[in-house]
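Table S2 (text version). Query chain:
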Amino acid sequence: MNTESPSAAPDPPPEPEIRPPAAAAPERRRLTLDLDVDVCVVGAGLAGLAVALEAARMGASVAVLEARHVGWNASGHHLGTVMPGYELAAADLVARLGVDHARELWALSRQGVGRVRALADEMPDAARLAATGALQVSHVDLGDAFAARLDMLGGGLGAAVEGWPAALVRERLRTRRYFQAIHYPDAFDVDARAYLDGLAALAQRAGVRIFEDSPVVSFEASGIRKRIMTAAARLRAAHVVLAGNVHLGAPSPRLTATLLPVWRYAAVTEPLGERLAEVIGFPGAVMDLDGVDHFRVVEGDRLIWASPETTWAGAPARHGRAIRRRIATVFPALGKVALRETWCGTVGQTVHGMPQIGALRPGLWVASGFGRHGLNTTALAGQLIARGMLWGDDRWRLFAPFELVWAGGRAGRVAGQIVSGWTRASAAAKGARARWHERAEARETAREARVAAANRQMGGGGS
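Corresponding structure-token output:
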């Protein structure tokens, strides 16, 4: 991977308002003594813990350095949906790389889904939820393009998908805002926090040493043994994995500058009773093809919903009002809903829409840029990087065409906010036009039926 970097790295993103962290566990104390290991992972989020776990199970000595505490940001504040694919649309993936290369990448994403499932099966029952599938719904009538999209996913990329017509979608989701949907029957959900805590526990059980409150001040990547400095101690390692997402900061500001920080806001409602089952009859996660909404039913009668996003930190409570309005817009039959809790997490999005997985130079690896990709890619990165470091497996090179590209700094964040707003407005406008056409067609069909009935009456009267 090569980096197209700016002349000066932008200021690090401000700290988001999220739920207060739990106290650090005694066994995850601060690093205070010099240490020598095979692998040092910087960042104790989902990707960093996945790399650490896989490397430790392959026999390496592993230390994880975390500036705050395990999963303190986006990794501990996601919706837990596990399904194949990437942020970059399948058609764009094929257009850029060709069918064969895209098919290999898609197969890796399915491998990531399987790995999450296998890891969740090793955890307490609370981590893994039912395999309920996932729906990607459309705001517009896709027409013939719907069949083409299904053929691309199923025939071209080998994905396990089903096409749902609008009638079936509206039978399961009581709203006129959705038309066709792509159903991923093998998708499932995990409890976000339980899965993260379970991943950390599995890593520690495998011998990984996790040091919280240990931010990396600097590191030297040249030479066979890399040198990593924290405020209180030094660490040496044969391999260093940068998995700090947009919060990596001082160790590699230029790498941080290749990610656009995005704050995604979510909320869970108070119990909605029987009316929720009357409105939403699909048990899995639902997300729209425009990336506006993502929701699912939890605890039987609550709704968890993620929708607004910004490229600057905002108050979750204020965006909670936007989530309430969004729920009322999509499902008016639910009426006014009360929110039990609202939160946000900061993800890093790449310019090209693919994760950053691979080697920057010998012994220096990156696992980052997982915004909008889902849990499958974090587990996949764990396997690919660990096997690349310790076994010489070079399948990580399948991601090599997606180089590290500067995200534009402050101007990029402004542009990102504009694009996000335009996407939401465009989706709303396209949906409104589609529903107007649908109503117009219904009115025309009814008019033709009335004319036909009148003609039949006239014909019957003259016979």
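Notes on Table S2: Residues 3-409 form a domain with the FAD/NAD(P)-binding domain fold (CATH 3.50.50.60). Confidence is low (pLDDT under 50) at residues 2-26.
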